[in-house]
Amino acid sequence: MMPRPQSEFLVATFSSIQFWTTIVVLVLAPLFFGSVDLFWVAVWTILLSVSALCGAAVPMGAGQSRILFGFLALCGLYALVAIIQITPHLVDQLNDPSWQRANDLLGLNASPRISSRAEIPPLAVGHFLLFATSFISGFFIGTSRDNSDRLISFAQYSILLYVIYGLVALILTPNMVLWAPKLAYRGSLTATFINHNTAATFVGAGAILWFCSAFSALQQSFRFSSIRVLLLTRANEHLAFRIILRSTGALTCFFALLLTHSRGGLICSCLGLLVAITLMATNSKKPRSRYMVVWGGAALAVTIAWLSGMGRIGSQGLFDDARWSVYGFCVEAIRQRPLLGAGAGTFEDMFPSLRTADFYSGGVWDYAHSTILEIAVEMGLPVAAMVVIAALVSLLILARGAITSEGRTRRSLAAIAGIAVLSYLHSMIDFSLQIPGYLVLFGILLGCGLARASDIPTAIGAGRSHALA
User: Fold this and answer.
1) In a domain? residue 469
2) Helices (H), 260-339
3) What are 148-196's pLDDT values in tens digits?
4) Residue 298 covered by a domain
5) In CA terms, which of 23, 160, 303, 428 is 20 to 30 Å from 336?
6) Helix 196-221 crosses helix 407-427 at what angle (to 10 degrees)?
7) Phi and psi torsions of 338, nearest 5°
């Protein structure tokens, strides 16, 4: 056997380092209270930066290169606006008036700038770099079919382990999160997260992965004339056990999702799951399958009607009054500074100046409870519009890839598309994507899915040589 060329050996070595570094971060990021501390943000960013650098040696197709360059361009524009905001005297007409007031009242000689801060807050920088490196690391893994399949498996089983821990902890230590006392959301499943809404998106992502896996196995059973034939034939025992075990994992995650008592998390997870199953059931080569869109719309209406009468959703609605008031404050802040915003990471600083005397909700509002509104407040409408367009484009790429692929590729892309729907929708009404423990999972899966979806011909060719799993 001929020895492998040194270049191939180096690429394989870097690829292995990149894969396992990404897996370590994927599995451990949710563990330490959602990694909300700056220390963990720095640790995961450093590890994912190493992963991204190692992944640069991985060869990519033309379609994959276009998506990666597009993502880097978006990150570059975001960073450019943030730098412009803290540069003194760059656009004097847009300077924050607080600088002039501080100079007048305190006799300072501070240089005015667009942002209300002289520097970008470290946590805002950390979240930006964490998402960028998560996406890039996942993207490089997505260039390999085998590695991306293993990544999906690690995501499935790690979420299931967190779910099982959450269920056990809810029974044995309902007033604790890990080793710390639970200050809020007592009686709700939060797993290793502080907030039950973030826990719901995390568990919901696991439910989508497991339901898609179970549905994929169930699709294989459709070739049998009856359930009896499937179960009584010894050769089919392995398939039957796969259906049972995967369904068990899916139902466990869904049961845990209900125990989070998160209204938005439940609705968005169900809508994401509906999208994922619809994509798996649709076949672009069969005209009749287009009727799945109609059936999907009907199922969507039934799902919304069912969820609207459940638990807190039926008794309290989807939004509370305080959140609506905050959204109104955000719209007013956007109206005042529509072009370049108020400065990256400054929402918590500026919110006290937005709240009115009749705003009855106390405490510190460090998030707008709507990520896209918060981006528009801090970065301006043009940047927010670019983020929305990028999110919609990512959904279209994932959906097209799922419909035109087959086998495990279709299952993976459909699941990631469902998780993207869940994450995007929930980020409109809460801040789950601003919690590093979930941001890392989402960024890695999104990057992996887009890389795989942009190389569908290769994925299909590879999928024909593998049995549907």
Assistant:
1) no
2) 263-281, 291-307, 311-316, 321-336
3) 999 999 999 999 999 999 999 999 988 888 898 888 888 889 999 999 9
4) no
5) 428
6) 160
7) -75, -25
80, pLDDT greater than 80? yes
The answer to whether 443 and 203 are in contact (CB under 8 A) is no
DSSP β-bridge partners for residue 177: 180
Q: State the DSSP string of 336-373.
A: HSTTT-S-TT-HHHHHHHH--TT----S---S-S-HHH
The count of other CB atoms within 10 Å of the CB of residue 433 is 20
Q: Over the Cα atoms of the chain, what is R_g? A: 24
Confidence band, pLDDT 50/70/90 cuts, at residue 309 = low
Query: What string of H, E and C letters represents the secondary structure of 198-246?
Result: HHHHHHHHHHHHHHHHHHHHHHHHCCCCCHHHHHHCHHHHHHHHHHHHH
Residue 112 lies in a domain: no
Contact present, 283 and 448 (Cβ < 8 Å): no
Structural domain that includes position 217 = 21-87+120-287+405-463
Residue 322: Cβ-neighbour burial (10 angstroms; 0-12, 13-18, 19+): middle
Q: How many domains does the chain have?
A: 1
Q: Which two tokens stand for residue 398?
A: 């994932």
Q: What is the pLDDT of residues 236-287, one digit of tens each?
A: 667 777 888 889 999 999 999 999 988 889 999 999 999 999 998 876 555 4
148, 448 contact by CB (below 8 A): yes
In a domain, 231, yes or no: yes
